[in-house]
Sequence to fold (389 residues):
Amino acid sequence: MLFSPIFAEKPILMKKILLFLLLTLQLASCQNYNSNNKNKNINELQYDWGVAVNTPIGYPIRFYAAMVGGTPIVRELYTKKEEPDWGNAFGYESTSMDKLPKSVDMVWLSYKEDCFYRLKTAIDYEKVEKLFREGFNQRVPNGEVRHKTYDTIVVGIAPGGVVVLWVGRGYKKITEIGRYQAEKIDLKEPPGLDSHERLIFSKEDREEVLNSDLTIPKAVREANKNKPIPFGLWDSYRYHQYQWFPVYEIPDGKIGDVDYRYWNGEAGTTLYTDFSSYMGKKDFFYLEEPIQKRPLFKELVISYKAESGQKYLAKVWFDWEAVLTAYQEVFGKETDKVTAHLDIRINRANTNLTFQLIGDNGKQTFLEPKTLEYYKLSDRNIITPTPLD
Fold:
């Protein structure tokens, strides 16, 4: 039987912390990363924040014990059954006013690999604090733009001991902090564990988790059957970044807010008031900023007003292999010497979008989206608004 993931009772929490201390001794670790360290700067600001954990679909993990700064991760079993599975700040355990973390110390079981990992490392506190302090602008459902800040430290755990940390707020604002490498460890079952605490060492539990629809959808299990674990895939999402920028072409129309999600887990929103006309063309829109390397699009949600005055919403999903192949075709091997723009064109009938990647080296290619959905919007729709004039 699969156990409930939430254990909120204080006795259990205290026992988990004691187990963590036992593990620390067991692994001969002597350095203390607790956020209550006496050397901490007492002037550090406090924020309301919690912890969320992501695992790729099909690759569940179970924590033996875990701390983010001085905050323990109480939930044990983590699995994802649907998108988004990488860089999602929904479902955090809890929030509390506390100082931001400077380290993580986590031990977990990778079910698919049948091994334990440990990550004990300092993290980029200055970057985390700067992002929380500066915050960002976000449109709320009534159409107003308000200044918000992050409220979640997101921990992503992938096969091979890969750990990525982000700061996030819900689904729409995710910013990467860094990538870390855990070490495999030989964790032995300590004495004195009760029946639940022994689950992580149970072969029967491992078989049940790997073959249950509650943890891995049947379609995913069948698709992955007899296939090797794609080690390195989640690193490739981060590694493949190019100097490019999107340009939105709306014939005689107006751009609205655009939500985007990259394959590396980062996500955000470009507000329509931040767009400028591209090369002086009134129906070409882009974000005027210095050319920079960026990851590849995974999802786009584009709101706009057509020439007729009708408002639309277009949702787009891209396949990883297809989008990567397109960028490699245009950029070639000299990626640092090429700049490209992705021309996103809406047809006048408002029934289709085309995506053309155009490099300044003369190379270009079309991207075929995996999925494209179109919606007509009325004033009663509760959505991020397009320009209201």
Remarks:
- The helical segments are 10-26, 125-134, 203-210, 218-224, 233-239, 320-331.
- Residues 240-377 form one domain.
